[in-house]
Amino acid sequence: MNLKPLDAGDPANKQQIKASITDAIAKQVTGSDHDEIARRVEIQYERLLVGAAVMTMIPSLTAGYVRREMVALAELR
After folding, report:
1. What is the C-alpha to C-alpha distance for residues 25 and 66, in angstroms, rounded to an integer?
2. Full-model pTM
3. What is the dihedral of CA 15, 21, 22, 26, to 10 degrees?
4. Could you tell me the CA-to-CA distances from 2 to 5, 13, 56, 65 in Å, in that order?
5. Contacts of 46 (CB under 8 A, 6+ apart)
6. 21 with 59: CB under 8 angstroms?
């Protein structure tokens, strides 16, 4: 089976991708606030989308950036 990746810039896919990133981070970072993660994912994803030359990297870059932020916040608590 050869699955085609979702187009990260396609409005029909963006919400699905953002929700998936949010859910994955919420599961990985114990005690994290789902709404706060979603807010950060929204901001970071859209920021990266503005200057992106390679759309396929946006989801993983967003996930990595927000995950690091949430882990840092969790360590402060």
Report:
1. 8
2. 0.86
3. 160
4. 10, 19, 16, 28
5. none
6. yes
Cβ contacts of residue 69 below 8 Å, gap of 6+?
40
Give the C-alpha separation, 45 to 60, whole Å.
10
Q: Which residue has the tokens 């990985």?
A: 28
Q: Which helix (H) or strand (E) holds 53?
A: none
pLDDT tens track, the chain, 77 positions: 555 677 788 888 899 999 999 999 999 998 899 999 999 999 999 999 998 887 888 999 999 999 999 999 988 87
70/32 Cα distance (integer angstroms): 7
